[in-house]
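Training component of the fellowship. As part of building independent skills, the fellow (R.M.) carried out the full modelling exercise for a liganded target. The chosen ligand was iron/sulfur cluster. The inputs are recorded below so that the supervisory panel can assess the work.
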Amino acid sequence: MLFGRRKRKPIVIPNKTVKEWKYTTCNYCSTGCAIEIGIDEQGKVVTSRGHAGADVNRGKLCIKGLLETELFESPGRGTEPLIRQRFHEPFEKTDWDTALDTTANKIKEIQAKYGRDSFAVVSTGQLLTEEFYTLGKLTRGCIGTNNYDGNTTLCMASAVSGYKRSFGSDGPPGCYEDFEHTDCLMAFGSNLPEQHPVIYWRLKEAREKRKFPLIVVDPRVTMFAQFADIHLPITPGTDTVLINAMMHVIFDEGLEDRSYIEANTSGIEELEKLAQDYNPKLAQKVCGIDEDTIRQVARLYAKADASMSIWTMGINQSTHGSDGVVNINNLNLVTGNIGKPGGTSLSITGQCNAMGTREWSSCSGLPGYRYLENEKDRKDIADFWGIDPEFFPKKRGLAQTDIFPAIESGEIKGLWLIATNPMTSMPNLPRIRKSFQNLEFLVVQDVYEDVETNQYSHVYFPAAVWAEKEGCHTNTERRVNLTRNVLKPYANSKPDFWIFKEMAKRFENGEKIEFPETPEGAFNEMKQLSVGTGRTLDISGMSYEKIEAARGIQWPYRADSETLKGDPRLYTDGHFQTASGKANLIPVRFVNNNECPDDEYPFWLNSGRVVEHFHTRTRTGKIGNCNKFSPTPYMEMNPDAAEELGVQHQSYVRLTSRRGDAVVMVQLTQRVPRNMVFIPFHYHDCVNRLTLGLLDPYSRQPAFKQCAVRIEHVDQEEAARLNAERRAY
Ligand code: SF4
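Fellow's submitted model of the complex:
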């Protein structure tokens, strides 16, 4: 009998004539894959391929990158600026001058009536770095509101906060090359093969060449957990307990790196004292991992010559996300695993340019990791831009997650949303929906005019997408990579860079501050601001030509660099960015303030991603071959739990939390334990109708991963009726 491939017809790759290949970087996740776009004689995009010479992806792409060129002409793209008086009226098409003038006048009117900070700006992690820098100039230097943030608060704020607390500065210390040197890798709350497929491929390749243990900590049997040597199915929200118990074993058995600790850290006494309280025998009752396994993993990690930890949202999206990051750093510092090949903390960033916004957008401070709280930093930037330093606030304003409650309370009256879709991405959506109705003015800037949040806007700016623009991204491992301008913007959409530059002309300080005509001009300003700062974030040696020739360069990359290679790791000399130069060991005590299952709401609700979709499906929902694999919301449920409730595979259920309800199709699987369900977060009016999103006190990041729900079976007719009701709402 013939099976499989021998019976199938071979795949035929269409023969397309490419006149020119143009260099770009993927605009979805933070892996930072280099993509070449093939253009034919008529200037039409005909194909694309992963760049074989790029160190990050070495020719590979995941499904999203492979199909990314379909974005250029995807349905729902904005063609003209739109305007209306009230959000429930129909839009009218308008010209750019009218849209920009109306918006600038509205911003000024609101600020004059209610104060400068009554107008807020929320951006994204998906613009190009030069656009972030220019938006920062506009918002901090011209509009002058302090309520300015990025949607990166929903994904990476805890990593930023944890790095700053431990090392004195943001910036992931490690790199992908560490996979080739490590002797033990521990992954916390990360489903790498689905979230960052090409990083996973790098890891897998490294393990095929040289076997080393892979430990995956995740409450769910994710795809990553299935590939692990050891899977730790932890109780949600108890990572602090697990790591403290591991450190208990490490100190107890003398496995710490005492000479590294003494030379490069401060605070060891308090940390050791705290770890005494986390005996694995007691810890196992809280974190759900048995005592022997905690001891085994602690020994494995501490005894390896080089160990590294990676993590994503399972750590960051928690009521104690910042503490979780600090504790991963604690573990690596006490075992001497920072700044050496294969020994590191490495946050795996979500959005393609979340790093760029952290570095240069001025969201939480000023460009180049400068602080609003620091007088010299304020003066340096004010002098460079040519404005009065007193124009800057002296401390950071509201984070994104505090901006929406401030709309609700009437403190904020106007909002500008840029490439972000809070109507799908924010927790507790029923509350967010209501808050939008309080706004006197909302402007939405997005590639797509059918993005859900646009339902509430007064003005819509159609933006260009990806390679319709030019500029840089910074990826997870601090690698700056370039996207060349391949096509003209679609219809009458405009690059975000152009929109910010034009808006600045309508403000008084826009006359004083110079806004370069091209993204490369903005890049050159950023380079100047990074020279000789003593910070790790130094890009002064880079140029567009060098970046393209190297297929991406990691920072720091100084002006005197003689090769095309930046520093792969930070803190190799044991010197940190703190006042003392030493890393901070910060004891982290477990506090259980999660919403946990109880009699009324007996299931944990967990959320995450699938490989085909990116964030709120604004883009991937339009790409046929991405959408067809996951076209509708679904929920993973354990078959035993389903049997108890009389729920069948592929039937519908209604989930209810203390915030709202959602209807989804059931997929029965052993990937989730009996008391947990999992729903991908990408779908509109779905999982975030249920989530609570308690905020981390340091990072203000919401705990998307932990809340409680109850489940009831509904028939197909009822499911259709409930979903129709929601669409009409
Ligand atoms: Fe793009 Fe990330 Fe896929 Fe690479 S792994 S192609 S960067 S989505």
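The panel noted the following from the submitted structure. The mean pLDDT is 94. The pocket of iron/sulfur cluster is lined by residues 26, 28-29, 31-33, 57, 61-62, 64-65, 196-198 (CB under 6 Å).
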